[in-house]
Fold:
Amino acid sequence: MAILIEKETQVLVQGITGRVGSFQTEIMLDYGTKIVAGVTPGKGGTEIHGVPVYDFIEEALHDHGVNAVISFVPARFAKDATIEVIDNKIPFLVLTAEGIPDQDVLSIFNYASIKGTRVLGPDTPGLVSPGKCKVGVHPERVLKEGHVGVVSKSGALSYEVCKQLTENGYGQSTVVGIGGGPLWDITQRDALEMFENDPQTKVIVLLGEVGGTMEHEAATFIEEHMAKPVISLIVGRSAPTGTQMGHAGAIIAGKKETAESKIDALRKAGSHVAKNPAEIIGFLKSIGV
Amino acid sequence: MRLVEFQAKRIFSEHGIPVPKNILLESSVDLENLPYPVVLKAQVPVGGRGKAGAIKTVSDANEAAAVLDELLSMRIKGNPVQAVLAEKKVEVQKELYLAILIDKLARLPVIMASAAGGIDIEQMARESPERIVKKYISPSIGLSDYTVRYLAKRIGVEKHLRDFEKLTHSLFDIFQSYDGTLVEINPLAVTATGLIALDAKIVLDDKAAYRHGDLFGKLKAEQTWPGRDGRSRSEELAEEKGITYVPLGGDVGMISDGAGTGMLTLDLIQDAGGQAANFCELGGQAGTESVRQALEVVLANPQVKVLLISLIGGLTRMDDVADGIVRYLEQHGRAVPLVIRMCGTQEKVGKEKLRAVGIEAFEDLEETVRAAVKLAKEL
Structure:
């Protein structure tokens, strides 16, 4: 088991003919992901790395079953493309675009919740269940199949931590990037709940950062509902108040948004809190998983 | 981008929301003909001006001149005061609060109102949340009339219902049409003649700039007066090139290919006893040219003794990054040592390209940070 995606998940790539879409499709195929179709308006009838390309999702669905879509459509066209995914009742969408206006994201989430699509992102690297399926852009060499569930706002930070996990012999069940924010459909709390219910996952690494208050929601969930151990790392301890540290969500506006307050809340909820990736390994050794 | 008060008030005015008569003072020449008593308000894109003593009532031109000088020499939360708004003083009966913003946890726009205006809303939300009335707005339905009538009753402005309805719908119209993430009137004053916005706050979503022509750029330009804004060369260059850059005051320059690893790298620099000069991240999908520009931005800061580059690309390709670094070195030479951790997509090719210019990339991030901090201390 893993969360959200499985070995048999059939994936459609939206924006498959672009530079990024086509490059990442090849890497995902090499990884073993079952990419059954791609969509780019105006490119229907062609092929990319052996994957048939369609003009519309509806046309692809005539020929293929699709459980998940990964979208590489640029931000300014993402809302329209997303509505196409939702209209076609695809249950799971990975939305990689960075820089979609907030009001578009609100409309997307609202429509998705009405029609029943779960959205990972935006601004997400996607997710990977090592050894099974990758619907994302994670570099393969940092990954290994195993029992650690990883949930992260930042893509690069999850690669950094997975690299150390893998080098120290700790494989991962699923690595989920929820996105840089400031708006999320699938939250840290949601991912924690899925990992809690996933038999393959024995321990969870939660990678958070300054800005927003989502880590407090996660802490409450850990305290009230989780039996599995959670190791947290909150980055941005040294970030000054009021400046935006890259991610749209990473800006300290109130006391609850500081690294300090999140670290406190997580510790009180019973999570181990690491200062750096090396300490995560230390905690894993002490837990003995 | 947070608009400055005079900009937000201009937008309010254009949408029929009443504001006090006002004039932006750019020099003391204007002071003779003001309708005294007037309120002088420092124009900075941050809150807490009242507490900082940056809003003052003056009764004549002499007093105004002295206060203007004083305000123009102030800094509020790091922001130099570059302009002052003079505003006709209004006789207030009651102060209210009204705002529309994005509730991140609910993932919906929310309209908030309170009968207690002019206060710190965050503090009130913590201490007496029952005094704030909140109603969510569905993106597909918009602001309904009954919601507005309900708010009017709860905050006790039924006497001015017609005004309140018009003003609230205008506020929602601004929120939507300008891609706002927050529009706020605090305080919204009740006077003998009706409702008037004494303060105005608008925060725009920078991600939406592309669909507003040159509007956001013009508003940004209006907030800075050349020579008075105190920005560094690095900051100017970063804005020009659209690169994420935050100055931090130390001597270890930092570039990362992701926001999360960038923050981690800063934390590690601090833990290793070093001081970062800046935060600069390439946004997860960097090409050769943006890498070259990032080096130009960070190294335009003369305080930087060592440049630490922290790379672990997924979407970002290490061959592209290496090309960007090499191109920068060809153009500018190597004034400071480069300490680079390279890992991720196409890293073999990237590392070879760096080796060709005599740079051996590190593998371990913490080791890289320690090496950079040590070097900065020796230099």
Summary: Chain B touches chain A through 53 residues (CB under 8 Å). Chain B has twelve helices and 17 strands. The first helix of chain B runs from residue 5 to 14. The longest strand of chain B covers residues 180-190.
